[in-house]
Amino acid sequence: MKPFLQEVAEDLITRFGSQLENCAIVFNNKRPSAYLQKHFADLIGKPFFSPSFFTIQEFFANSTSYKIADFYLQFFTLHKIYNQLLAEEKLESISSHKFFPLAKIILSDFNQIDSDLVDAEKLYRDLEDISIINKDFDYLSPEQYQFLSQFWTSYSEGKHKKQQELFIKMWRRMPKLYHKFQATLKEQGYLTNGSVYRHLAGDITNHQEFISNFDKGKIIFVGFNALSRAEAKIFTQLQETGKALFYFDADSYYLDDVSQEAGLFLRKNINQLGLKNVFAEQESLMKSAGHHVNVFKVQGQSAQAKILNNILEEDYIDSETVGKTVVVLADESLLIPTLQTIPTKFKDKEIDLNVTMGFALSTSSIFGLVDLWLTCQLEILHHDKVTYKNVEAFLTHPLTGLSQKMREKIQTALLNENEVEIDHKRLLRQNGLFEVFYKKIDNPQHVVTHLLDVLDFVLTRLSNAKTLKKIDAELFVKTIQELNRLHDTFSNHIGKEEIPFVIYLVQKSLQSIAVPLAGDPLNGIQVMGLLETRNLNFDKVVILGFNEGIIPKSSIGNSFIPDSIRRVYGLPVLENLDAISSYMVYRLMQRAKHINFVYNSLTDESTSGEASRILKQLEYESGFDFTYHELNLDIKTEPFKNVQIEKTGNAFIQETLQKYLDKKKILSPSALTQYISNPIDFFFNYIAGIKEPKEISAVVEANEIGSILHKVMEYFYQDLRNAEITADRINEQRKKVPAFIQKAFNAIMFNHPDKIVEYKGMQKVILAIVDAYVNIILNQDISQTPFNIISLEQKVEAEISFPLNGKEESVKIFGYIDRVDVKDGVTKIIDYKTGSDKLTFKDVDELFNSDGKHINKALIQTLLYTYAYEQFSGKTCVEPNLYIVKTMSNEGIWFKTGRQNLSGDFLEEIKPQFLARLREKLTELFGAPYFKASEVPDNYKYSIYKTLFGK
Hints:
By secondary structure, this protein is of the alpha/beta class. This is PD-(D/E)XK nuclease family protein.
């Protein structure tokens, strides 16, 4: 079918011929001008002087010599005046940061008041008495009167409520704020867009110089729908003076039927305002043309984009026709999934793709770097330090250009020190980008200039290295342009602002930047938002995100003008969004042959899971040919895989295991207990060498609390071990415990025992926990006095032999024993535990059963220490004791099975059994054909390798 703009072009050429250059063609957005120019060129077929093209805002802005004030100039002007009014009322001024969200709403309301020619004085007038309404508002219709009465009655009844009182005070302030704001801007040579509309609508004949530019031609308004009052008044005046023509893209299907919301505004324009539609006599394409509609119900947000390849396959083959195919993103968050789905090539053919929406800076690595810089500056400003996670983000960011060697060197140093926060000056000493990036902002005026320095440094480096991508180059240019514009606006207004607020403004401003992606706006597949489709037509239309709440939107936006007042003064209300959305969808369908609606059927926080009501309406009344498709994503669970690592025939595994037999590697007790609990964990940890990456965190892990406790006890007994330990000596030494705890904390957490630290938050909690644990241990020790300490943190080694493949092999084990005591002639191995270890065990066999539920790692470990110490020292009858700080006050320190403690003769009876089962386990470790997972999930509940062995 013939596109609307082609029909417009044909009619204009017929009317004006060679005088077309004297015309001004006005659209509601920029996109259609390229299409109309193309139609002119095709129809005229030779060089010609083009008419002037404008958006409505550009056209109206030409009517005045005043400049249009940008948002930030409006904000700073409004804030200054608002505080002046507060001062007049003897109220405390409001900070910029608190006023900013209010200002956005107030400015939006002011703009709407001007665009709709509403008397601000009347709208904001202080009405608290129904009698005032009766007296001053006798011109209202009964319905408008009712709305107004309801609103002010509700506030009269609730005057005692604080929020209502605050609202009334602000409401009373608005008329004066509005007039002062407009006057102040005008004194500076600026107007708002809304005030330009109001100014022009006053009397268009007063702007003779402006409209005389088009005396030889006409001002042609193309494709307008919803008009503000100012636009309506200007259009009417221009029509009355014979200066304007109007081309409305309408269809009698919804224009003539008053129940059709899609025609609401066109009926107002044509029937009430009397604007004459050049195309008034056109046939109804909605009724006469064939329309095939495919409805796709899919599960999931991104899944909507993923079915595009099925819908667009024939367009990939033939994608050169003007106006053939459009993908409309009603939900603009689907841009990235859409771009990821549509291929660049199909069957060796390049696919023409044009994305009109633009690529958002906020989704790029450039914004990531800018946002990181702004975040770091806030940290430097408040604490003179930068958190490790932000330093790490800087080190690993792709635009910083740091070498792998330098990155690893800095990360290793910081990891070793476990610094959660890094001193700002230390970062500056690195020079280069560090010096530019971490330079402290000392003045609000420098926020933008310092950020420009950072971007300039990065851009120069990328350019010199010839690694700058085209899209990044365009984003850099747009970002630098925006920052320069902000610098010009800010220079006269932010001298006394707080730096964090200026940073916030810069963040907000940059988030709105987008650059167009490469593509031809006339050829191939077009990807655009719904608003961008105005005036354009396509043979094939695909609308993604066709959900209720998206089309139409479920909110009109924030406003301080309540719905009832909006209705009184004819300002836009929620129903207007329904009419606008319906019109945009219907006019896209008028000339389309193939229509595809895709919606997300899943319900979540962002969507109701329902198709748009517009689809329901079309299904019910249009008579179109509908075909329904449903994408069902079957949920398949991954089949359980019993992962086994085969040892035989694997040279790497055999070589690594041989190193233990050759004593080049030594087994630790923790390695053995890991093998016993879950053999496959041993493979990943000690054979494959897969380690959990070290991270810096303000949170102290449970194992680190244990390490701190061990260190404290070592410090505590270091000076006492040279003589018999008595209760008096322990109590005397207790005075030093707080100092020992801090020293141990610094040693474990920062690798620096004498570091001066200002403890805060969770660190203080950890110090208190360790202090409680130390006192539990010392209370136990006092109950055992007198005793002697033989050694602290003593390293012991021993060999254990076992049969393997018909011969005797051996491995060396080693470990650090927390403490060795002697009391009453009995040597005791003391092991401290801060976890949830148990003193009970079933029997020796179960200790080594990898598929059993009664493995006691602590007992295996202390018996290994006992065996190693006996081998090392030549002593016998050494007794293992376990200090489980959480339970020792109630349960004691001896291992037990049933009611029998593991000590004396019973212990000596158990030791050979333990050694025999240990040898069998070592034979299995080195001789079994596989490393496999335990059959008991609890044995690897906390394993970091669970995802690797299919559990």
